[in-house]
Hints:
A 3-stranded antiparallel β-sheet has the order 1-2-3. Helix content is 56%, strand content 3%. Helix 6 runs parallel beside helix 7 (157-166) and helix 6 packs antiparallel against helix 17. It has helices spanning 39-45, 48-57, 63-75, 81-89, 95-106, 118-143, 157-166, 172-185, 192-202, 207-218, 226-237, 240-252, 270-285, 290-301, 303-306, 315-324, 332-353; strands at residues 23-26, 31-34, 37-38. Coenzyme A (COA) binds at residues 11, 222, 226, 256-263, 310, 313-315.
Amino acid sequence: MAEETSTLHRGLREVYIDRTTSSYIDGKAGKLWYRGYSIDDLASNCTFEEVIYLVMNGELPTQSELDTFVQELSDNMTLPEAIIDIIRITKDAHPMDVLRTAISALAAFDPEVNDNSAEATLRKGTRLTAQAPTIVTTHARIRNGQDPINPSPDLSLAGNFLYMLFGEIPDPEDTKLIDKDFVLHAEHGLNASSFGARVSASTQADLHCAITTGISVLKGPSHGGAAESVMTMSLEIGSEENAEQYVKDTLGGGGRIMGFGHRIYKAVDPRSIHIQDDLKALGERKGEPKWYSILQKVVEVMAPYSRRGICQNVDFFSGAMYYLLGIPEDLFISIFAVGRIPGWTAQVVEQFENNILLRPRLQYVGELDREFIAIENR
Ligand code: COA
């Protein structure tokens, strides 16, 4: 039996692999900054378009820089016909699988696909950020037997998301909620999907490869899939009175409460506070306050866990918000993915700027020098 004695860092917990200026999480205090700006200031005052610009370029845009950038996004929202055909062929797959496939296929149509310079990578990131909402909504309509809707140059990315999904000019208050949700998901340190994107970039693969990896890694329920699971939980709970028993039964059976816990936050995730307020107001506006009440009750019952640092994360309230906006549950992770493309892009640019192959090791615990036996004698 071979046994190496080097120290194991399972899950890469507390391992720092590089430096960044993209975002910083103070997990103990429950604070988050993008490029040095507090998430609270950004969520309260900025559009997603401003935040994309900030995350990708490092600075908030001036009005004229923003106008040019918004035009660039708008010019790139339409998909090539062949991508719509691919969406048709794969329409029965999970929306994240379709998004991953379509983003991967877009590489074939991007004239700068092999150019890994910072300038080209940022241009490609801008195009992919613009194209992603069109992919998600085109798929949602095609699988329902509806025609896709072309993006409107008069709407923001968030407005277009709702417009292309439902076919009606959205309520500005609903648009604001999706816009803020995109802002809150734009960037988040070395989470698993950003790490995946960086691993791709570290081999000098291009941005389309890195974002395809990011989408793949995001799909799991321990990462982006939690919002959908929280909504499933809320539907199972059904009413506030059942919440306490549900939580006790789940935890008693060794299960986890989805939307709780985080590798870095040991306090309430600051992003969840914004979504919590938005969900409360939305529930009242739509005459359906019960989802907020159910989730609030779960938070109350989870108080002993919160004291251990297992608190509500960004996914806890977002699922109910999407649900009240009429968005199908299996699209929830795709909304997260659309919001995160700027963050993945920024980190890929950082990785390229000071590249080193990401290649950790595994401790080998198997046998060595086993006797080889020819196939006819086994
Ligand atoms: N419900 C109940 N207990 C939880 C929990 C949850 N949601 N999340 C973590 N814990 C407990 C674990 O059971 C473990 O307890 P133990 O030390 O007694 O064994 C302890 O907290 C540490 O959990 P661990 O899985 O080692 O932490 P991690 O940093 O590897 O995991 C998550 C982080 C996000 C994967 C984890 O908290 C989780 O599964 N949460 C639910 C899924 C979710 O909401 N994901 C979205 C993240 S944004």
